[in-house]
Structure formats: structure tokens, C-alpha cells
TrEMBL record, chain A:
Belongs to the binding-protein-dependent transport system permease family. PROSITE patterns: ABC_TM1. It comes from Pseudonocardia ammonioxydans. Residues 98-299 form the ABC transmembrane type-1 domain. It is a multi-pass membrane protein. The keyword Membrane applies. This is Peptide/nickel transport system permease protein. The chain crosses the membrane at residues 12-29, 104-126, 138-160, 172-191, 230-256, 276-302. GO terms for cellular component: plasma membrane. Keywords: Cell membrane, Membrane, Transmembrane, Transmembrane helix, Transport. InterPro entries: BPD_transp_1_N, MetI-like, MetI-like_sf.
TrEMBL record, chain B:
Belongs to the binding-protein-dependent transport system permease family. It is a multi-pass membrane protein. Keywords: Cell membrane, Membrane, Transmembrane, Transmembrane helix, Transport. One of its GO terms (molecular function) is dipeptide transmembrane transporter activity. This is Peptide/nickel transport system permease protein. The keyword Transmembrane applies. The chain crosses the membrane at residues 35-54, 96-122, 134-156, 263-284. The lineage of its organism: Bacteria, Bacillati, Actinomycetota, Actinomycetes, Pseudonocardiales.
Length: 310, 294
């Protein structure tokens, strides 16, 4: 139990530190924030009075710790400020686009886990023989072809030339397959290799030789005896990888014009819309921290050895 | 280790060189690593020799817009009639050069902070380790996006953003290497012989730590090329007139359906670069990590 509490505390500390880091970046941003709000709103040469009005509106003249406290308090309540560009609350903008991003990452996650399980298990079963080589080669190809190159090629070959699917993705399940596949491939490579290594490691245990001597079939040994022992490192990779899918989603969403949070943020970066950028960072960080927390707790549930505090 | 020469750096570096030669030989015995070295050599050769052999990558020829591959333009031309082979090779220069700059900067940050944490210890170590852990516990690409957002899009800003968000892993390596070196017999002997802490760190700890960190940073080049290309593709890095792989891919997108050859140069370049780093890195890990040696 104390290990769980300790792990929760660690997650909270990471979140708080990340919040301070992100707010600190905002504070050291070159240029006058009020000036940039006005530029983002399309006012080219604002009068000093207009700048002062914005400063008062955003309460930029308060001391930094006060502003941080106010920002953190708002963020905890789900208020991420107002987009400089659209003038609407950032949380409202995200709420509109988050379902599309979640659909994309969920589909990518399912594809990646499935493919990695197949490739990793095949490689471990046929270690040193052709399934291993084949799996390693496939993983390498997945790893070295950048998602944006693959995305552009797939869009041209499958969608534009062969007429499969739609060019304009609308963010629904009907169009999710291609972008999800492109997003998934990079993770498949690493995850399948990790699974292979830990399956082989679990396979070298003495009790498996006993099981083999008693006539337990190869498949049963693998699924019943090796998999539970090998799954913890795999799950850890999946957990951390899931959250980094959110970063990758920004690129894939832009390639496929997927109407998600990632593409919205890339547009915000080009427009220097700071509240949106900061909001996206915090959402992604929370997803990352929560994902690794959940995975650690799941691993402790599977593997009793991890429950004891080190 | 013998008593004689224990305080001299010659003994230390000779030992390092011996190990390095063994690793190189083991690497050469692996076909995957050999393929990786060939890819790297092809890219380097193209990047270095390209400007002498090929036409000006930025010279437009409006009579030959989007020309398909031919004897005159081996990879065809882009929408401004610029030679795509020359641009892809120029892209190798800017992409690989930028990746080297990013990894060198982040290796420098990691080296300094990690060595301080490992050699000084105490509060400095506790604070630096906490910062490193927080940074390692956050998604790098998202942080890079955030820093680019703060600094504004642009190639130099992107390099800076990547460097300040990717040093944490290298700092951790530097810290453990420095910690190990600090307890090595020759360093303890040097301290007892009256060499000051600063000189002991600079003369005896830093060389070994630098070796570790530079290997790790070199292996990170592939990921750096990938991230640079991806973010430039999004328009957050190199800006259009620059010949850079990600930017070239983005520029070719509008006309790609009619002129698919625009994708070949930058696509192949990116794949070769990432494959080289991955193949060499994997082989190096297999060779140096006794647990993975099968």
C-alpha cells in the first residue's frame, strides 16, 4: 500500500514540476505578452492604451508567483485560459477536438499492441531462426520509415491513385485506419523487440525446463508460463509509448488533416497562440504521467515482486 | 592494474583505446552494423562531395518545372525547376549538420550537469537528479513543441528547442560514469597525491565520461534527424527556400500526385540516416552489453 502512495506522490510531484516548468517557459518568452496578444488578434500597431488595457485584462502586472498560483489553480479546475487567436476558452477548443485525437490514438494503440504481440511472440518462438529474422526486419522497416514520409506516400498511392478511403479525414472511425496505422508503426518496432527479449529471458527460467520435461507443450509454456513473467516490461513500454503517441499525433494529424488537438496546436505554434500551446503541453503531460502511473500499478498487480518498496 | 603509471593519463587512455579497438572489431563482424556503416558512409560522402559535383540546389529554372527524372536531372525537378538530386544532397548537409549540432549541444549540457552531479554529490546531485528525472518523465516531442512555441518557429529555434529538451538521458549517463570514475583507484590515488578536486575531475574523470556521453549522443543522431525532419515538415523548423528533407517533403505535397519523384530524394535520405543510426546503435548495444550478448 505504501508503495502505491509513494508512486502517487511521485506522479503529483512530476505534474507540479512540469507545471512550473511550462509556466516558467511562458514567463521567459521573449517579447511583451500583451503586445503578442494584440498581434495574434490581428492588431498590427496597437496604441499604448490598448496594450495597457490588455495588460490589465490579463492581469500581467501581478508578481510572477501570484500569476503562477492563479494559473495553476485555474488549470487544476480545467480552465486553461482563452485562446489569443480565437478568443474562445482553450478548454472549449480542446473539447471539440479531443474526441478525434482520442479515436486516433486509441486505434493506433490497438493496432500497435496487436502487431507487437504477434511480431514479438513469433520472434521469441523462433529465436535464431527465420521467424526471428523476419520479425526483426519488419520491425526495422517500421522504425526507419518516418511517419510523415509513409503518410504522404500512403495518401498518394492508396487514397488518391487507388481510390481507397477518403482524402479529407473527418475524424470519425470510418477514416481512422490509415492515420492510426502510420502512427502505430514506430511503436510496434520497439515494443515487439522488448517483448521478444523479455519472453526469451522468462523462457530461460529453471521451472520452464521442468515444465518441458513433464511434457507441457511449447505453446502452453509460452502463453501460460512465460507471458505473465514477460508482460511487465512490455506493458511499461506500452504505457510510456502511448503517451508519446500524443506527440506523434501532432505530426500524423497534420499529414492526414485529422481534425484533432495535435494539428490545432501546430497551427497555434505558427500563430504564437501561447495559451493553446501551454494547454496542449499540460494535457499531454497529464496523459503521460497518468499513463505511466496506471501502468506501474498494473505491473505491481501482475508481478508481486514489484509491490515491495525498494 | 599495476602500480607504475597509475597516476598518468597515458595508462588510462591506452586502456580505453584497447577496449575501443575490440568493440570496433566486434562491430565489423556484424552484418547489420556493416550495412549501417555503409549507409552512413554514403550519406557523409554525398554531403561532403555533393557541392563540387552537383548543380546549385537553389538555382531555379522556370523552363523545367516539375520535370520527371532524366539524364539532366536524375531525380527530376521541383515546382521551381530546381534539381532535386542537388537539393536532396544539400538536404543531407543541413539535416545531418543540424542533427550533429543538436546532439552536440545536448551532450554538452548533459556532460556538464551529469559530471557535476556525479563528482560533486550532495545537494547539487540531489537537485540535478530530480530535474533530470522530471525531464525524463515527460514526453520529449511534446516539450520540444512547447519550446518551439515559446521561441517561435525557425530552424535555429528548433535546434535550440531540441537541445534543451533532450539532454536528460545523456546527463544520467554522464552522472553514473562520473560517479564510477570518482571511485576508481587511479582517481583516489590522484586525490591522495594532492591533486585538487577540479583538476582531478578535468584530468581523470572527464575523459572517460566524455567517451560514454559522446557514444550515446552519436546513437541519438537518428532520432534527431527524424524529429528535425518531422517538425520541419510541419513548418516549425527550416523555412521553405532552405533545402531540408522535411521542408522539401512539405513543399512537394501540393504537386505530389502529378510529380511523385519529389518524394524520392528526401524520403531515401531520411530512411538511410535513421537506418544507419539504428543498425549501428543496436549492434553496439549487443556488443557492449554483456546481458544482451547471446
Amino acid at each position: 500500500m505504501s508503495a502505491v502512495v509513494r508512486r502517487l506522490g511521485q506522479a503529483v510531484i512530476t505534474l507540479a514540476a512540469a507545471g512550473a516548468l511550462v509556466f516558467g517557459m511562458l514567463a521567459v518568452t521573449p517579447g511583451d505578452s500583451a503586445q503578442r496578444v494584440l498581434t495574434a488578434r490581428g492588431v498590427q500597431e496597437p496604441t499604448p492604451a490598448a496594450v495597457a488595457a490588455v495588460r490589465a485584462e490579463l492581469r500581467l502586472d501581478d508578481p510572477l508567483p501570484v500569476r503562477f498560483g492563479r494559473w495553476a489553480g485555474d488549470a487544476v479546475r480545467g480552465d486553461l485560459g482563452v485562446s489569443w487567436l480565437t478568443g474562445r476558452p482553450v478548454s472549449a477548443e480542446f473539447a471539440e477536438r479531443l474526441p478525434a485525437t482520442l479515436r486516433l490514438t486509441a486505434a493506433a494503440l490497438a493496432l500497435a499492441v496487436g502487431l507487437a504481440l504477434v511480431l514479438g511472440t513469433a520472434a521469441a518462438l523462433g529465436a535464431g531462426r527465420w521467424p526471428d529474422t523476419l520479425s526483426r526486419t519488419i520491425a526495422l522497416v517500421f522504425l526507419v520509415v518516418p511517419s510523415f514520409v509513409l503518410g504522404v506516400v500512403l495518401l498518394d498511392v492508396l487514397v488518391v491513385r487507388a481510390g481507397l478511403g477518403r482524402v479529407i479525414a473527418d475524424g470519425t472511425w470510418a477514416t481512422v485506419f490509415l492515420p492510426a496505422l502510420v502512427l502505430a508503426l514506430g511503436s510496434v518496432a520497439t515494443w515487439s523487440r522488448v517483448l521478444r527479449t523479455s519472453l526469451l529471458e522468462a523462457g530461460s527460467a529453471a521451472h520452464l525446463r521442468v515444465a518441458a520435461a513433464r511434457g507441457t507443450s511449447r505453446t502452453r509454456r509460452l502463453l501460460v508460463h512465460q507471458m505473465p513473467n514477460a508482460i511487465a516490461p512490455f506493458l511499461t513500454m506500452v504505457g510510456l509509448g502511448t503517451a508519446s503517441l500524443i506527440g506523434g499525433a501532432a505530426i500524423v494529424e497534420s499529414v492526414f488533416t485529422w481534425p484533432g488537438v495535435g494539428r490545432f496546436t501546430v497551427e497555434a505554434i505558427n500563430a504564437r497562440d501561447m495559451p493553446v500551446i501551454v494547454g496542449f503541453t499540460m494535457v499531454a503531460v497529464v496523459a503521460y504521467v497518468v499513463a505511466s502511473l496506471v501502468i506501474d500499478l498494473v505491473c505491481a498487480w501482475i508481478d508481486p515482486r514489484l509491490r515491495e518498496p525498494r | 592494474m599495476t602500480g607504475a603509471g597509475i597516476l598518468t593519463r597515458a595508462a588510462d587512455t591506452a586502456g580505453h583505446r584497447h577496449v575501443d579497438r575490440g568493440v570496433l572489431r566486434a562491430l565489423r563482424a556484424r552484418p547489420a552494423a556493416r550495412v549501417g556503416f555503409v549507409f552512413a558512409a554514403v550519406l557523409l560522402l554525398a554531403a561532403v562531395a555533393g557541392p563540387w559535383v552537383l548543380p546549385d540546389p537553389d538555382l531555379p529554372d522556370y523552363t523545367r518545372q516539375l520535370a520527371p527524372p532524366s539524364a539532366q536531372n536524375l531525380l527530376g525537378t521541383d515546382q521551381s525547376g530546381r534539381d532535386l538530386l542537388a537539393r536532396s544532397v544539400a538536404g543531407a548537409r543541413s539535416s545531418l549538420g543540424a542533427a550533429v549540432v543538436v546532439m552536440a549541444l545536448s551532450a554538452l549540457i548533459g556532460l556538464v550537469l551529469g559530471t557535476i552531479a556525479g563528482a560533486v554529490g550532495g545537494t547539487a546531485d540531489a537537485v540535478l537528479t530530480r530535474i533530470t528525472d522530471v525531464l525524463l518523465g515527460l514526453p520529449t516531442l511534446v516539450l520540444t513543441l512547447a519550446v518551439v512555441g515559446v521561441l517561435g518557429p525557425g530552424f535555429a529555434n528548433l535546434l535550440l528547442a531540441m537541445a534543451v529538451t533532450s539532454w536528460a538521458g545523456l546527463a544520467r549517463i554522464a552522472r553514473s560514469a562520473a560517479l564510477g570514475a570518482w571511485q576508481r583507484p587511479d582517481v583516489i590515488a590522484a586525490r591522495m597525491a594532492g591533486i585538487g578536486p577540479a583538476r582531478a575531475v578535468l584530468g581523470h574523470v572527464l575523459p572517460g565520461v566524455t567517451a560514454h556521453v559522446s557514444v550515446a549522443a552519436t546513437l541519438g543522431l537518428g532520432e534527431a534527424v527524424l524529429a528535425l525532419g518531422g517538425l520541419s515538415f510541419l513548418g516549425l523548423g527550416a523555412q521553405p527556400p532552405t533545402a531540408e528533407w522535411g521542408t522539401m517533403l512539405a513543399a512537394g505535397r501540393e504537386t505530389f500526385a502529378h510529380a511523385p519523384w519529389q518524394l524520392v530524394g528526401p524520403g531515401v535520405g531520411l530512411v538511410l540516416a535513421v537506418a544507419a543510426a539504428t543498425l549501428i546503435g543496436d549492434a553496439l548495444r549487443d556488443v557492449t552489453d554483456p546481458e544482451r550478448r547471446r
